[in-house]
Structures are given as structure tokens and as C-alpha cells.
Amino acid sequence: MKKYVYFFGAGAAEGNKDMKDILGGKGANLAEMAGIGLPVPPGFTVSAEVCALFYKNKERLPEAVRHEIEKSLGRLERATGQVFGDAKNPLLVSVRSGARASMPGMMDTILNLGLNEKTVAALIAKTGNARFVYDSYRRFVQMYGDVVLGLKPANKDDIDPFEAIIEDKKHELGVKSDLDLAAGDLKELVSRFKAAIKEKTGYNFPEDPRRQLWGAMEAVFGAWKNDRAIAYRKMYDIPESWGTAVNVQLMVFGNMGNDSGTGVAFTRDAATGEKTFYGEYLMNAQGEDVVAGIRTPLPIAHLKKDNKKVYAELERIRHTLEEHFRDMMDIEFTIQQGKLYMLQCRVGKRTAFAAIKIAVDMVSEKLISEKEALARIEPDQLNQLLRPVFDQAEKDAAIKGGRLLAKGLNAGPGAATGRIVFNSVDAEAWAERGEKVILTRIETSPEDIRGMNAAEGILTARGGMTSHAALVARQMGRVCVAGCSELVIDYGQHVLTVKNRTLRQGDWVSLDGTTGQVIEGKINTKPSEVLQVLIEKTLDRAKAPVYLTFAKIMDWADKFRTLKIRTNADQPDQAANAVAFGAEGIGLCRTEHMFFGQGKIGPMREMILADTLEQRKTALAKLLPLQRQDFAGIFEVMAGRPVTIRTIDPPLHEFLPHEEKEQRELAAEMGLAYENVRERVESLHEFNPMLGFRGCRLGIIYPEITEMQARAIFEAAAAAKKKGIEVEPEVMIPLVGHVKELVDQERLVRRTAEAVMKEQGVTFKYHVGTMIEVPRGAITADEIATVAEFFSFGTNDLTQTTLGVSRDDAGRFLRSYVEKEIYAKDPFEVLDRDGVGQLMRMAVEKGRRARPGLKLGICGEHGGDPSSIQFCHLIGLNYASCSPFRVPIARLAAARAALLNAPAKLGGKAVSARVEAKRPVKKSGAPKKARRAEAKNPARKR
Ligand code: PEP
Ligand code: MG
Fold first, then answer.
1. Residue 939 has pLDDT above 50, yes or no
2. Percent of the chain surpassing pLDDT 70
3. Which residues surround ligand 2, an ion (CB under 5 A)?
């Protein structure tokens, strides 16, 4: 019979850390900790497979599963010596969800389950602590009311009805803290809570512990498909089919008095990666108090003073966990009357800074190998290192000028400046219209997730380093200042008051997430440390620790990757940036971009407007030296690295003005009649320009254009050669669908090369190849490879033509397509492996069969996307080419593709490419936006 429930505790466990698919992350690690003898309260995990059964069974637990749970409950009773619902020695449990991937704050928890009027009396008799028991009871009724009975407010700005009752009570009593409420007050709160429940739902609060348990479990499974969980899963690519497991565990109490407490900690600093024990705790409190930010917790080091013995044990466990899991762990613990219990451990979320530092440090500590270090850093995380920092002088001036408003916790490093908004709906709406916003909240909750994603930075008045705002911001790579208690935020009035100053919605504020400073007004940002070393060259690398760690990771990546990384660049400065980032060549130089440079658009337009071959040649003669100069600059920067130069590609009308005013100006400049210009522009009009007179078709109809470009390339190559610079240009013909198109252009290019070599008296190597960017090109790749020395996959056009989706017009519907999951991702951003990818695979096979040494690359925007890079590795391309700033990401992605494809021993477990392909790739925020903008309309890049 299939097993659905797994027991853990008392030094043994039926599960282990490798069973996350079944037990969820929380359940698997509870089992592991119990298995290695750490103090874990006993309990059982109901498998994530039950989640699907629950939905199939009309959102009820199937009988067979209930039966198995009953058996485990019996075992738990025997293990603890307590009985569920007993009038003397009652067993109380927690019920928590736990999916395979961690979803911080997304899922629900119910504590103290099993309490009712009868067990409350028993517990008071047993503990002699009525205050503790009623405090536990009111928490239980509150959580149950929120999670199971649906009393949680729907509106983001509304207060939880139970919190409102507590506030009323405190107001009546004239007290400030929850700790000031006596047993009788808490007992009365329970009655008021129950009355509120009756009023809202029409039902009495369930007294029967078994009904409570089934209700709680069904609510936890049911929450898997609530709106916020769905939104979160979408954002992090977590498949719905995974489901959540449910953990039922003996309650231990952090609110049993001043010798009890609860806390959360990271085995290293999650923000900086420093090897320091980092956490917070509260005495006489239950778990939710620390995370929810209701009371401000104490730093973990302070526990040494509160309870030396427990602190020492925690330190021991910290080391045991790091040695055992060989990673930085995030833990939750409870101290019950001086005894320590571990409630959770999981691999800790961390900033990109921390991820890189921890990975590098753990290699030197011999905890992990270089390969494992690489496998632990998501390529997109590197984006965080490339993010801006404040212009220091401007920031200093702002502070000197009295604009420092407050200081909070430095929860998410980096610099952000933007306009204040007070809720997530506004954050999304403002960001959508192009505003930079700082989401400013008293504290955040999972409902704020979309707004947090849309914001540049997040500012909260309450909560610690492990509050929701801090955790989620770090995970998203957002700048975050949390727990800034001096801020007084009025949601109703949309104002923020601090130090007698009032800031309103729309006012500018700047956050330094590295120091925790909140500064009034806008402060310009400047490049990160890595950029200052590599690009601006304003910082000495020896004085740049973040850069040095980054460089180490890059070195390791280069050691293991087999895919070469090139760049798409058409200006010497772009090429220089890319080389600084580690590019090994140029994979695509779009020559048409050069025509927009200084002094070139004029002769270009003259060429297009020419009526005769003679006129066209005259104009081209003006362009020749200008293009030659561009290529010479690129060859110089690339210093012998391969350079692929593509002949003109876009439709000619893109070079002409379309407004009457500009057309008149052009006519005047050229000494032509305005009508002539207008007619010429009109004659170039096409219904489908992307499928029209572009690509190699231009060079075939106007061979003199290709000839001029080839001449410019080869003359620049000859000049470079004479200067002692190695060159080996690769001339690439775009949009080839028929081998004869390529034959036509190839002859022209080769003829020109021979002529230039003769004229210049030098020889140089060169190659002629093509882009594969229309399906016919891929299908007939064997024929094309008889002529082409290399293929470069133009996946922007190949996606457009394979899907029959216009690059220019996809924006209107593609986002909805992705929302409806017709395509899992925007296929212009992440390669459509099943469609476009299959054509590529076919072209690789056919091409290599026809020409064994065929060099293969990709130069569409997908060349900078980690998942697409992995696919390129898998189908055996030689290189990927991407924009300069994505080169480091591509280097790491290529290394990970090689390692995960090996299949190498990673973390003691073989990981195959197949596994990697299915793994959720976390999306990082800002860079994604940038990529979207690039990918949304790649055609417009022209
Ligand atoms: C492509 O189509 O993928 C490509 C690189 O060319 P362009 O974007 O210039 O059409
Ligand atoms: Mg193209």
C-alpha cells in the first residue's frame, strides 16, 4: 500500500533530506534533523502527493489518508505520553504547510491546535500557568479564525479583525504591550474572538480537536491554490503539480514564561555572507511574533546573556548543520522552559553578495568544491553585483544638508531612489507607467508581493532582518530598509511623518540598503564596485573585495565551461566593455547600427534615395571609409579575438524619416524635391517589413551594398594586419533560407576579399557563414553548410518565423499567453525548446553532417538567457553571444550547463541536465525588467 504519512522524532525518522518531493522542504529537513539526533519535537508529515488527492476528492482528505493520519497521531501520542483532546494530559500540535520549494510567508500555520475549554482547563492544572494557557488559546483561535475560517481581511489596508479586538482591549486597559494582558484579559479575548467568528461565519468555533485537525489540514492543502500562493508560484516558476505537504508536530512553547522564547537565525549573515551567527529572538513569545515584526526582537548574540547554556547549544547546532548540509542554513528554534528545540532548518536565502561570498568561503573552508560553489549561484544573481550604488559625494551632501530622515535595518543592499507609494496596487500601477517607486509600508505581508516586485526599493517601519519584507526583498534582489521605527505611516492620508517632516505619496526618497539609511529626495546612483573596476576603471581591484570574489567565481566558471561566450557589439566601446566582462569574441556586429553614427546617416539615405546604380555607388563610396574606420576600431579592441560581422539586414525604409517635416528637411539637404523623397519612402513601404525586402535579399538585389561592406571589412583587416594586429573576420549573411542566396553573397564576399588582399599586398584568413533564422534555413541546413563555414542562430527571427509571431506586435498578446500558460515563458526571452529548439537541433545535426568542423553559435537575445544557454550547450553549439553586460551571467550559465550536464557529483548526488532543465529558475527583478524591455521588441533595437 502506498505510504502517505511519515513519522519523525525521538532520534529517528522515516524520511530524510532527499525526500523533498514527497515531504516538502520543511518535512524533509525535520526528518533529517531528527535523524541526526538534533532536538526536534516529534510529529509526522502528510505527503505532498496527498495535495493532488485532496483536490481530486472535492477538497476533502481521502478516507485512506485519514486512516493513516489517525495511526500516526496514535504513534505521536505514544511518543509524547500525551493524548489528543485529553482532559488531563492533552496533546497539542502545530499544523504547517511545507512545499518542495520554500515559499516564505506564503503558506499558513496553525499553532496550539487541540485546545478547547476542556483541554485548556487540563493544561492550566498541569502547568499552573493560566496566563500562558490563555495566551496560547487566543493565538490558536485567532490563527484558526484567519486561516481555516477565512476571517483574514481581503483588503490590504484593513486590519485583521482579531488584531482590532486586541487593540480595543489594550486601549480599554490603557496598556501598550501584549505582555501587559493578564490571564483574565486573554480569556476574555478568546470569548470576543469566538463571538466575532460566530458573527462572521454563523458557526461556533469547533471544540472537537479532531474536527480542528481535519479543518486545519484541509485549509492548508486548500491554501495551495489561493491567490497569493498562485502569484508567488508564477513569479518563481513553481509548478502547481508539486503540491504542498502538511506537517503535524508536537507543540513546544516559547511563551511559557521568561525562561522560554523563540527565534530565527542564519548560520551566516544572509545579507553580507560574513561568517557570523546571525539571528533574532524574543523571550516569552511564539514563533509568529518574530517573523511578523509585532515586537522588535533581540540580536542572537544577546542570548548569551539570557541563557548561556542554550546559546552554546545553538552554536553547536549551527556548526553541526553547516557541516552536515554543507550550506548556510536558516533555522527556527524554540526554548521551552530552558530546553532548546529545533523547529525548522532550510538552506538560507541570501543576497547575491552573500551567495557569492558564502560559496567562495565554503570552498576555502573545504566544505564544498568549486563545482558545487558554481551550482549554488544562479547566473541572474550576478545582476545584483552589477547594480548601481549612490554617488557618494551626492549622498554625503544630502546628509550634510540634513536630509537623512532615519536609519533602519540594512535588509537588502544596494541603492534605490524613487517616489513614495503606500500600497502594492499603487506600486504596480506607477511602475507600469514608468515611475520609479519606493514601496513604503508599516510592514509587508504576502499580499504585497507584486508591489514589492514592481518597486525599486522597500521601506518598512516595523520588523527585523527576518521579517517578511526583509526576506522577500533579499530573495527578489530589491533594496530594502526594514524596521525603521521612527517612521509614522498613515495609510489613510497617504503620508509619512518622520522627525517633524511630512512626506506625501509621490515625494522622492532614497534608500541605502547597505547602511540602512533613508534619505529625503532623489540621489543619483553610480555603477557598482564590479563596474567601477571593470568598466569605469576608477577603482583599484585590490581595494574591491566584492569584485575579487566575483572574479574568483568567474575564474572557476571559465575552468568548467565548454561553451565560449561572445558578445553582440557594434561599437569599439561596447566591445571593450564586453572584453572587460570576459567576452571571447564578437558573435554579432550589426553593421546597420553603424549607419546611424555621426556623419553616416546622410550618405546612407543618399544611397537609398538614389535612382541609378551610379548615384548609389557614389553614395556608397562615401560610406566606405566610415565603415572601414568602424571595423578598424573594433579589430583593434578585439586584438585577435574572433569577430563576426553581419552584412546589412533591416528593411531600408527604417533609415528614412517618416514625418513630413523631416522628409522636407532631408529633401532640402539632398537638393531633391520633397515629393521625390516622399514618393521614395512610400515606394519602400511594405505590409510585412520583417518578412519583406531585408536580410540577404538587400545584398542580392543591390550587390554593391554587400561589396562596399565586404571591402570595408577586408580593408580594415588588411590595415590591422599591417599594424601587427591579428584578425580573422567572419562575414555573416543574414536571413538565408535557400543555399543559392548564400552562394550569391558568398561569391561576392570572396571576390572582394581576394581583390583587397591583392591590392593591399597582405593575406589574411577570413570566413563566410550565415545566420540560421528562418525555418527553411534550418531545414536545409545540410545544403547551406556546403557553403557556410559557420552558422549563427538568429533566434529572434527564428522565433518570430517559427511561431509565426511578429517580434514587433507580440507585446499585445504574448503577456496574456504567458499568463494563460500557453507558453511557459515569453519565447522571445527564453528559448522555446520544443519548437524553435527542435529546428536548431535539426540544423546542428544536418549542418555538422555536411561539414564536420562547422562552427555553431547563437546571437539572438536568448544568448544571454541562462536557460537558453543551457540548451545551446546541450545541442553542442560552440558559443553563445549576448549583450556586454550579460557576459558574466552567460559565463556562469555556461559553466553550470557543463557541470550539470556532466553528470557531475554535486552535493553527493548526481544531477543530470534533465533535472536542471526542470528546476525552477528564480527570476530576479530589475534585471528581468531590463531583459524584458530588450526582448519585448528586439526588432526595435535596430
Ligand atoms: C536574430 O534574429 O536573432 C538576430 C540576432 O538578428 P536581429 O535581431 O538583428 O534580426
Ligand atoms: Mg535576425
1. no
2. 92
3. 773, 794, 797
Please indicate whether residue 570, judged by its CB atom, sits closer than 6 Å to ligand 1. no
The pLDDT confidence band at residue 581, using thresholds 50, 70 and 90, is very high
Ligand 1 atom nearest the C-alpha of 796 is 3
Task: Give me the residues paired with residue 13 across strands.
Answer: 8
For residue range 585-608, list pLDDT tens digits in order. 999 999 987 776 667 788 888 899
- pLDDT on residue 292: 56
Place of cell 477538497: 59
Interatomic CA distance for residues 594 and 578, integer angstroms: 18
Instruction: Let me know: does 99 contact 247? Beta carbons within 8 Å.
Output: no
Whether 859 is catalytic: yes
Residues facing 110 on adjacent strands:
95
Mean pLDDT of 658-677: 88
CA distance 439 to 421: 5
- The closest-lying atom of ligand 1 relative to the alpha carbon of residue 792 is 5
Backbone angles phi, psi at 809, to 5 degrees: -110, 0
Reported pTM? 0.73
The secondary element (H helix, E strand) that includes residue 170 is helix 161-173
- Residue 379 in contact with residue 921, Cβ under 8 Å? no
Active-site hit among 51, 468, 484, 589: 468
| Residue 110 three-state SS | strand
**Residue of 345, 859, 872, 882 with catalytic role:** 859
The CA–CA distances, whole Å, from 814 to 492, 863, 866, 932, 939 equal 37, 20, 21, 12, 15
705-728: per-residue pLDDT in tens?
A: 999 999 999 999 999 999 999 999
CA–CA distance from 322 to each of 275, 279, 301, 343, 354 (Å)?
A: 11, 15, 19, 16, 15
Q: What mean pLDDT do residues 508-518 have?
A: 92
C-alpha of residue 735 to centroid of ligand 2, in Å? 7
Write out pLDDT tens, residues 521-538: 999 987 788 989 999 899
Q: Does the C-beta of 444 come closer than 6 Å to ligand 1?
A: no
Distances (CA, A) of 521 to 411, 415, 417, 498: 21, 13, 8, 14
918 three-class SS: helix
Q: List the beta bridge partners of residue 646.
A: 590, 732
The DSSP annotation for 268-304 comes to S-TTT--SS-EEEEEES--THHHHHTSSPPEEGGGHH
Specify the pLDDT at position 913: 35
Q: Name the residue among 553, 550, 555, 557 with its Cα closest to residue 898.
A: 557
Confidence of residue 940 (pLDDT cuts 50, 70, 90): very low
Q: Any idea what DSSP says for residue 180?
A: G
Q: What is the 3-state secondary structure (H, E, C) of 784-798?
A: HHCCCCEEEECHHHH
Tell me the C-alpha distance between 847 and 715, whole Å. 31
Helix or strand run (H / E) with residue 464: none
**Pocket flag, ligand 1, residue 795 (CB < 6 Å):** yes
Confidence (pLDDT) at 7:
97
Strand segments, DSSP code E, in 773-912 are: 790-793, 855-858, 879-882, 905-906, 909-910
Query: How far is CA 278 from its chain centroid?
Result: 24
Q: From the alpha carbon of 938, which atom of ligand 1 is closest?
A: 8
Four-CA torsion 5, 9, 11, 17, nearest 10 degrees: 60
The finding on whether 859 has its CB within 6 A of some atom of ligand 1 is yes
User: Grid coordinates representing 105?
Assistant: 510567508
pLDDT tens track for 875-899? 999 999 998 888 999 999 999 999 9
Q: 237 near 921, Cβ under 8 Å? A: yes
Give the Å distances, CA to CA, from 704 to 334, 619, 900.
79, 11, 48
Active site residue 319: no
Q: Whose CA is nearest to atom 6 of ligand 1?
A: 794
Does the pLDDT at position 539 exceed 80? yes
Element holding 246 (H helix, E strand): strand 244-250
- Nearest ligand 1 atom to alpha carbon 588: 5
pLDDT of residue 157: 67
